[in-house]
Amino acid sequence: TSGATSGATSGGGAFFVFHPAWGYFAHDYDLTQVPIEVQGKEPTDAQLTALQTLAREKNVKVIFVQPEVSGRGAKAVADAVGAQLQTLDPQARDIEANLRHVAQALRQASGLPATTSP
Fold it and tell me: Could you tell me the pTM of the whole model?
């Protein structure tokens, strides 16, 4: 675990994203990434309903999107469950700072207290 992301999360949690760009991060910190897009496409109505149900069950407060992706499905899920959309950029130039930002965003989205950088 690097200093950039140590203590990122408590592990075992789930987070919702429009595009599944955080698979390695999720794996490394024992998280479950729940993508809204399905095989690179917006979800069908049935998939959207299932995602909304899961988001309610998980008490999701934030759904993460990327700057270059419209994510209409993410907005539909967020609107249905009262969640916010928050942008995370998997292609940010400063990798270490970005990983710190992602870790903090995931902690805050999961209701864990924010940490301060070393």
Answer: 0.79
